[in-house]
Amino acid sequence: MENLYKKLAAHLDKTPGGFPATESGVELRILKQLFTPQEAQLALSLAMMPETADIIAQKSGKPKQEIEPVLKKMGEKGLILHIRKKQKNTFMLLQFVVGIWEYQVNRLTKQLIADFNEYVPHLIKDQQKSQTQQLRVVPVEKSINTRLHIMDHERLENLVKEQSKILVAPCICRREHAMMDKGCGKMEEACLVFGGGAYIYESRGIGRTITQDEAMDIIHKGVAQGLVPQPSNTVKPVNICLCCDCCCQILSNIKKSAAPARIVNSNFQACVSDDNCTGCLACEKICPMDAIEMNDSGITAVVNLERCIGCGLCVTVCEFDAISLCDKKDVERWEPPRTLVDTYMRIAKEKGLF
Predict the structure, then answer these.
(1) Nearest CA to 70 among 49, 46, 47?
(2) Domain 260-327: top CATH class
(3) Residue 203 CB coordination number (10 Å)
(4) 3-state secondary structure of 80
(5) Model's pTM, two decimal places?
(6) Cα 46–191–183 angle (5° rounding)?
(7) Torsion sign (Cα): 153, 269, 140, 238
(8) Residue 314 CA to chain centroid, in angstroms?
(9) Does domain 2-120 have CATH number 1.10.3720.10?
(10) Could you tell me where in the chain the CATH 3.30.70.20 domains are found?
(11) 3-state secondary structure of 236
(12) 268 phi, psi to nearest 5 deg
């Protein structure tokens, strides 16, 4: 039985998001809580491309009538992706993060959370080896100025206005921390899901459908609480997460790095005008990466460009126009892949998966 879950772990490790092995074997404990042995065996026959039950039956050596109900149940549990198009059902392997884990938002247990929190530093460290990350950082609207070289896909309002179907789901990171009595108290309903993903969430009873105006209201509320907007790393995003630096597993682990700016895919950084700065410390307090501190004299703010991820939250709290966003200097602009498939292909290539 142990060997079965090791095979599944190795199978998931070949996805762009990865699923690295650990000395403690915590990743196997996680899989045992999520997958029954029958589900684990069947998942070995799935690929990260939609396939019919007929094809999966051939690959698994099991009758279609036996595996199709199991595949549908796995889809309901968020272990794989079940895609319904007219009368055609297809099924696809999901990577662990972003993927399987986020679909467990309504199925969390304290044991699963404890094991995930033990495992996630290993997972994030593995993901940070790639230049292309699964999420990118875009600046909050209030921080955008006319001097910035900013594209439409870097403006939150544009990203929302392009969507015809929007769903807001609970943030699994803040929910799991709250369940462990370590919550920060910031808004939980903070993950925006678009298009086909919204329909999938809706079919599983996760979240609720909202309008574009409601989505912008949620973003504005999140920014006021110091949350960082992180869309999927694509020109056409499938989601926007509003993340805090304390609960968000991605941001909190990036924050532990000596140079978060080298990890995050962003084109901007904060700049300070010494003439206007009063040393009020507002920008220092809201910065999610501890990238701002007072100079030796304690009079003006100084930005550590190795830590600044260009979210622009500091700009929203400065009452003296002393801090603004600037284009990153002397670096090539980050241009995200067009679609999520392109992003996964780029990450897979960077990891040497093909």
Answers:
(1) 46
(2) alpha beta
(3) 12
(4) strand
(5) 0.95
(6) 110
(7) positive
(8) 22
(9) no
(10) 260-327
(11) coil
(12) -130, 165
Locus of tokens 């140079």: 259
Q: Which residues contact 278 (CB under 8 A, 6 or more apart)?
A: 320, 322
Handedness of CA 332, 336, 338, 341 (dihedral sign): positive
> Residues 6 or more apart from 255 whose CB is under 8 A from it?
245, 288, 289, 290
219 neighbors 228 (Cβ within 8 angstroms):
no
For the beta carbon of residue 342, count every other beta carbon within 10 angstroms.
16
Return all residues near 162 (Cβ < 8 A) that are at least 6 apart.
236
Handedness of CA 207, 208, 212, 214 (dihedral sign): negative
pLDDT 10s digit of each residue in the chain, 354 long?
889 999 999 999 999 999 999 999 999 999 999 999 999 999 999 999 999 999 999 999 999 999 999 999 999 999 999 998 877 899 999 999 999 999 999 999 999 999 999 999 999 999 999 999 999 999 999 999 999 999 999 999 999 999 999 999 999 999 999 999 999 999 999 999 999 999 999 999 999 999 999 999 999 999 999 999 999 999 999 999 999 999 999 999 999 999 999 999 999 999 999 999 999 999 999 999 999 999 877 789 999 999 999 999 999 999 999 999 999 988 889 999 999 999 999 999 999 988
Instruction: Check if the beta carbon of residue 312 is closer than 8 Å to that of residue 267.
Output: no
Query: What is the token pair recorded at 294?
Result: 């007072």
CB 131 within 8 A of CB 168: no
Residues of the chain with CATH 1.10.10.10: 2-120
Enumerate the β-bridge partners of residue 92.
81
What CA–CA distance (Å, rounded) separates 82 from 93? 9
